[in-house]
Write a structure and sequence with these properties.
50 residues, mainly beta, 4 strands
Length: 50
């Protein structure tokens, strides 16, 4: 998996691309709770963020 950081509004998230699933998986950073989100494109990731 390749990783990167995405900033959206006041959130930062670690985003990884899973080549075997051909999709992205993100996890919001710096929160007490775990918030995961998924998508096949950057637009999908942004839509699935809180």
């Amino acid at each position: 998996m390749l990783g990167n950081v995405l900033k959206y509004k006041d959130y930062y998230a670690e985003v990884k691309y899973d080549t075997s699933a051909d999709s992205f998986h993100g996890r919001v950073l710096g929160m007490g709770d775990v918030i995961d989100f998924y998508g096949r494109s950057v637009q999908d990731l942004r839509r699935s963020l809180p």
